[in-house]
Amino acid sequence: MPDTPRSSHCLEIRRNKIRNKIKDMLSIKNLQARIEEKQILKGINLDIKAGEVHAIMGPNGSGKSTLASVLAGRSEYEVTGGSVEFLGKDLLELSPEERAGEGIFLAFQYPVEIPGLSTTNFIKTAVNEVRKYRGQEPYDAVQFLKLMREKMAMVEINQSLLSRSLNEGFSGGEKKRNEIFQMAMLEPKLAILDETDSGLDIDAIRIVANGVNKLRSKDNAVLVVTHYQRLLDYIVPDFVHVLYNGRIVKSGTKELALELEERGYDFIKNEVGQEA
Amino acid sequence: MNTIETINERYQQLQSNNGSSALTPIEQNAFNSFNTLGVPTVKHEEWKYTRISSVFNKEYAFNPENLSSSITQKDLEAIRFPGYEDANELVFVNGLYCSELSTIRSENLTVISLDQATKNEYRELVLQHLGHSGKYIKDGLNALNTAFAAEGVFIHVKKGNIVEHPVYIYNIVDAKTANILSQPRTLIYLAQKAQVIFAETYATIGKSESFINQVTEIVVEQDALLEYYRIQNDAAHANQVNTTHIRQIGKSLVNTVTVTLDGGIVRNNLNIAMEAEHSESHFYGLYFLKGKTHVDNHTVVDNVKPHCESNELYKGVVDDSSTAVFNGKIFVQKDAQKTNAYQSNKNLLLSNDASVNTKPQLEIFADDVKCSHGCTVGQMDEEAFFYLRSRGVSEKAAKSLLIHAFAVDILEHIKPEKVRQYVDQLISERLGVELD
Asked: Which candidate, B225, B226, B221, places its Cα nearest to that of B276?
């Protein structure tokens, strides 16, 4: 960027120096994955540190959701190369439930409706299984209720929603709010939000984003996967990466998201096309 | 001596000992039918998937009165439903009603032998209704049970009476020393505005095989309410053919839930004849099978009169090398206009070796009706499974939660809390998780 003021450039360099001293929470190296015969991820490199918010943007079909799914351990995807290290462990060796235990949380783009499964019972089971994994005592009914009340207030979700079957008949906004509620209950280290803004109106986006922001701390990190810039007005990223055709082709700060919003993804496609 | 010879001998013995009674012609007719029809084979259209003859053709003892004494209060303890302290308890041992082990708490509930019932004011009722199931079930096993009907029991609920204590029925088979054939037989009559709740279960004690051939006929009068819950969780060497035949002869409400969790071969025939306008019936079933259990639910709803409504939902979870059969028939007769009849059968297959045969059938002779039927056979929803696991829930617990979620819309129709808790407990034990 030739017109960036020099002082800001120095600041950037200094920040990166400090950043380099902190150990990575998540380190993705040359990750490749396919579904059936279709190669989707073609060599992803990404490092995330505690306290950071990263956004992955990109046109449809670029592999954003695949990346989120592979990190959470969805079995339809076959990892064909590369590595993912999470807090010093080989993430790809772990089952989905072990990843959750280690502190990975995926907020689904399309949360599943499960008629007959009470939301509260499900969350209680999940919280206690995760506690068991982490070597903590399970919560009893009283402790669980207390925690639930606290987190319900934090993410602005109603009791009435939680006493229903899991996501059954929930509106799009209610489903996403329930995802963020589960995230609050499970206290993950790395939250991956897969197109959390899709299908939401601006009020719903604001509520969901508020929930996420309240959960941010210096000890955890967020990976926001999104097609549009608008969610990033509310969850402000430290870094923005553009995923195109299975690779991260451009990285920058939050300004990159604004540029994408303004110029569309075509300019990325053209840039990449010229390089190739 | 093979089973047929044993049956013949016992039949002749009973007929000569007891002499002629009001039930003799019914029994004789039935015995002749049994001899003509025989035990159904897979060539019989209604028995295509259930090989009952090979089970029946084993050697069974059929002399229940000599064995009943060895069953004690302690055996009973093991199978009691919770809340029994406040229930009427009817105990059948090897198919015969055992008054010593039974407790009747409700004064408005009469329990006497069918033979006795024909000798008092119930005579006309019994003669009018006994054996009606034979009009719907034309096979040798139904006839065989009727051939020994005098040994059965008549249960009467008085007009306008609510039986406050539920009626728990336990069928105990003493198979400690020999294979046992038992034939419980009950005729239940709910007079006008009577209300009663039944919960029934089965237990085979001992390692020998048991074959229960049960027939329960129920007559429901105007404004009466019947709830009938049947929990089948017997041993893998316990087989049963069970016919429940309900007639709604007055505008009335019937709710039934049949839960099958264990057993060898289990065949349930459930018939509901809606013979009065504006009657309503709801019948639900859950089979959750493992091992080699084979369960066959055959249901018939016969809409005879107009403006009736029936809802039927059977759900199955079929694991290991178990097999399930569902055959549901809805008849809407010519006069039964404005009938609403719904039927659905849904199955969850958990293993490659398990199988389900399902056949919903509708036969409509009226032209202004609302009917629907359908069936599904599917596997565990992978997306839901992943969703739960991504939240830290183990594979086993996720599977259990999904199975329970699938079954819950049947279980919630078990209205008496104690019985529902009992079934919930059995299911959590099976799933190996705490469910609340």
From this structure: B221
